[in-house]
Design a protein that fits this description.
It is a single chain. By secondary structure, this protein is mainly α. The protein has one domain. It contains two helices and no strands. Helix 1 packs antiparallel against helix 2. It is rod-shaped, with a radius of gyration of 14 Å.
């Protein structure tokens, strides 16, 4: 995964994490990151020969 963009997104949300929408945005970014990691695991398992 691209951890540089994840770190940048986490750093960008640190300043806006005070409001409700800032917290919601941080939660959405975290959920998206977990989803993409899950997709990468599934793609890797699918790519490997049986």
């Amino acid at each position: 995964m691209n951890t540089a963009s994840n770190a940048a997104a986490a750093h960008a949300t640190a300043a806006t994490n005070k409001t409700f929408f800032g917290k919601l945005r941080a939660l959405a970014l975290h959920a998206l990151n977990l989803h993409l990691q899950n997709c990468a695991v599934i793609a890797e398992a699918y790519r490997r020969p049986q």
